[in-house]
Amino acid sequence: MTRTQIVVGMASCGLAAGAQEAYDTFEEKLSETDTDAQLGLSGCIGACFLEPVVKVVGRDGKEWTYGEVTAKRAAEIFEQHVVGGEPVLEWTFEQGEHAEEVETFMGRQVRIVMRNCGEINPEIIDEYLARDGYKAIEKAVTAMMPDDVIDEISESGLRGRGGAGFPTGRKWKFASDAPGDIEKYIICNADEGDPGAFMNRTVLESDPHSMLEGMMIAGYAIGSAQGYIYCRAEYPLAIHRLEIALAQAREHGFLGDNLFGSDFSFNIEIRQGAGAFVCGEETALIASIEGRRGMPRLRPPYPAVSGLFGKPTIINNVNTLTNIAWIILNGAEEFTKYGTETCTGTKVFSLAGKIARGGSVEVPMGTTLDEIIHDIGGGSYSGEPVKAVQLGGPSGGCVPVSMFDTTVDYEELAKTGAIVGSGGMVIMDEDTCMVDIARFFLDFVQDESCGKCTYCRVGTRRMLEILTRICSGEGEMRDMDTLEELASKVKNTSLCALGGTAPNPVLTTLRYFRDEYVTHVRDHKCPARVCKPLLTYSILSDPCTGCGACKRACPSDAITGEKKQPHEIDPDLCIRCGACYDVCSFDAVHVE
Amino acid sequence: MSDPAVTDSVDLSVVDEMIEQYGTDTSAAIPILLGLQERYRYLPIDALRYVTEKTEATPDQVYGVATFYGQFRLEPVGEHIVRVCHGTACHVRGAVSIDQVVCDSLGLTDGADTTEDYNYTLEKVACLGCCSLSPVMMIDNQVYGSLTRKKVQRIFKKLGREEARK
Questions:
Q1: How far apart are CA A226 and CA A185, in angstroms?
Q2: Which residue of A230, A433, B84, B97 sits 20 to 30 Å from the alpha carbon of A176, by its own alpha carbon?
Q3: Shortest CA distance from B68: residue in chain A
Q4: CB A331 within 8 Å of CB A136
């Protein structure tokens, strides 16, 4: 009989939901009892909506996964399952209260990039090795010529998963064609800056070796001996696990000189980002690694010809690289079985916002938005109808629910004005104001604009001012035309993708939700009740029981009233924070 | 804790240590500054000056980098950093009101970002990557998810009690 295994999912999402408390409880219980059960950790299986997630493999080898494991539940699972041998069925993914949800969430996914996420301990290389880890690099170096590797990747049809969807094989070919005696570099872009996207973090925290192996294969293919991982500083746990993985890979001889007895040598260094969204753009990223301000430069020359320190450089996104080892081991043909003719394979999306089942999901390219959001994601968390999805962060756009039959495919999504982008999907319901969303993104890009191009620097600011005015009820009808005019100028006169795509959230909301703009401007109302200057809070005397909850919650002492008597809000003192609305159990607070 | 702004001159041996570790090449500038900030918790101007003297990096490069990237701070900060996430997912799930409750709980008014006792500094961040648990905030290295007004108040009350016990 084997020992019972307890595995706690400890990626950032799990930790934010309380995985550490669950882990500590198991640890404490283990030290108090004489069971020989083993406690370990894993990354994230993607079902963030049920975090903290704990897997227990019993002595009989049967595996059970528990969701929402609080410290209290952990204690009970320990007693009943680990010690007693009886799973606490009601909390399990397999048979518990969320079983059906888990089935629809996981059942439709195809896992290539996330093949090991949640399955292995990201801090122990042996667990990666046990799942064919570093077999692909071995195969590449010992049985394939660099050009064979590039051909295989080209045949797979893999396209860059960071946003633009450039064919990976072709990109590698450019760098490989440069004379072999000059230095070349591979950079992994792990500067996941799009707010609302976290699929790179999930992979790096859950399975760092898969990405490293992809980098090594890329290095072998183009003839590079040095790789850099450019990871944002906001991901301390990802950096920590990458450091561990790098040290282990070196120890096992997967990194260093003359790998697998060949003349191929490869090393990887981590470079931390310092908090600049524009560094997701490849020339800005290069400037940052070179120690300069992250400002993009004109292309061509493309980095594949002249990149880091003026040398040929390939920059691939985390998810692109995580596909590589799988393709080398399983073959290009196997990869093309998934997805569409022009977009092969799978894509990982982050589901967040007003979604019922948030998390990281991996689906074949060509899946419809509806399947991802309504079937896998379960629609909105409140049960209210979904209004739109925001795709691709500040470079993307808002696609209305009426167009959810659109498939996720680089070309198809571009037709809607949005982009696949890094894969962040923020779901919005009727309580989300689309004008406020446009203003939110403009606020973000004007803050993150590096300032090099005038229209990006000044134009986005002017656009933000107009949007702020509209959200305050001081907009004019002609503002919408001005926004469109500015948008096209910012798009056309910016050097890099940040400025080139910055107006997308404004343009798509103007295109699909123009009526919301009009209501703000003409009626001075925010239909979603989000734009504070346009709201009025009042208390309906009928349902109000005078319980005083709102009065206690009000931070500005704007609410008055005797006990058990209807209360009132002083509009001059009210700061429209919504605290009263949130605490009222009688629906007595009225907002319009 | 005493006001770090009035403590005497900075210990420049930290800079030497960083240069030892990362070298003097211009490309070492960002790792050096990140290292310095981790130790000093901000970038003292004297330390920056010393970096330009000891490395290939020019004053315009060092100051340019220090002011370009969002991570770098040129002012002293509180003992604990509170990062309220303002990513898209957090925004649609009410980050603005979370931010306000944090300000209220810490007694920060008129746009101040550091408490008078230099115990806390509040930062607005673009995305912490925990979108599925939005709204979120991070206090030092601990992430708190699925926040509500009440939950935020409880977290700071609890931290205040722990502080008092020390």
A1: 5
A2: A230
A3: A293
A4: no
Side-chain half-sphere CA neighbours of B47 within 13 A = 30
Asked if B18 reaches chain A (Cβ–Cβ under 8 Å), the answer is no
Beta strands, E only, A143-239: 185-190, 226-231
Q: Tens digit of pLDDT for each residue in A6-35?
A: 999 999 999 999 999 999 999 999 999 989
- Nearest CB partner across the interface for A201, out of B87, B88, B129: B129
- CB contact B58 to A (< 8 Å): no
Which two three-digit tokens encode residue A132?
A: 């064919």
The answer to whether the Cβ–Cβ distance between A582 and B104 falls below 8 Å is no
Q: Which residue of B has its CA nearest to A288?
A: B30
The encoded tokens of residue A68 equal: 């929402």
d(CA A243, CA A246): 5
Q: Give the tokens for residue A544.
A: 């109000």
Min Cα distance B27 → chain A (Å) is 4
Please name the member of A195, A360, A553 whose beta carbon is closest to the beta carbon of B87. Answer: A195
Other beta carbons less than 10 A from residue A48's beta carbon? 30
In whole angstroms, give the CA distance from residue A130 to residue A100.
Answer: 31
Q: Is A389 helix (H, G, I), strand (E, B) or coil?
A: strand
Chain A residues whose beta carbon lies within 8 Å of the beta carbon of residue B33: 274
B25, B42, B130: best to mutate for the A interface, most A CBs within 10 A: B130
Nearest alpha carbon to residue A152 among A313, A312, A409, A324: A324
User: In the structure, what pLDDT confidence band is assigned to residue A180 with cuts at 50, 70 and 90?
Assistant: low
User: Which residues on chain B are in Cβ contact (under 8 Å) with A192?
Assistant: 129
Which residues are registered as beta bridge partners of A346? A364
Instruction: Extract long-range pairs of B90-93: CB within 8 Å, 24+ residues apart.
Output: B90/A195, B90/B127, B90/B131, B90/B134, B90/B135, B90/B136, B91/A195, B91/A437, B91/A440, B92/A353, B92/A354, B92/A426, B92/A428, B92/A432, B92/A437, B92/B134, B93/A353, B93/A354, B93/B134, B93/B135
Cβ neighbours, 10 Å, residue B84: 25
HEC sequence for A442-484: HHHHHHHCCCCCHHHHHHHHHHHHHHHHHHCCCCCCHHHHHHH
| Phi, psi (rounded to 5 degrees) for B6 | -105, 5
Percent of chain A scored above 90 by pLDDT? 93
Q: Where are the domains of chain B?
A: 10-68, 80-165
Domains and CATH numbers, chain A: 5-107 (3.40.30.10), 125-336 (3.40.50.11540), 346-429 (3.10.20.600), 434-522 (1.20.1440.230), 536-591 (3.30.70.20)
Q: Counting Cβ atoms within 10 Å, is residue A346 exposed (0-12), middle (13-18) or buried (19+)?
A: buried
| CB contact residues (below 8 A), chain A span 215-234, against chain B | 233-234
Beta bridge partners of A591: A537
Q: Which pTM was predicted? A: 0.94
Superfamily of domain B80-165: Glutaredoxin (3.40.30.10)
Task: Kindly indicate the confidence band of residue B3, based on its pLDDT and cuts at 50, 70 and 90.
Answer: very low
Contacts of B135 in chain A (CB under 8 A): none
Q: Does A276 touch chain B (CB under 8 A)?
A: yes
Do β-strands B120-125 and A346-353 pair in parallel, antiparallel, or remain unpaired? unpaired
The single residue listed with the structure tokens 């691709």 is A392
The pLDDT-based confidence of A182 (bands split at 50, 70, 90) is: confident
pLDDT, one tens digit per residue, over A534-558 is 999 999 999 999 999 999 999 899 9
Å between A276 CA and nearest CA of chain B: 5
Contact, A313 vs A175, CB < 8 A? yes
Band of residue B8 on the pLDDT scale cut at 50, 70, 90: low
Question: In this complex, is the C-beta atom of B49 within 8 Å of any C-beta atom belonging to chain A?
Answer: no
Strand pairing partners for A55?
A7, A65
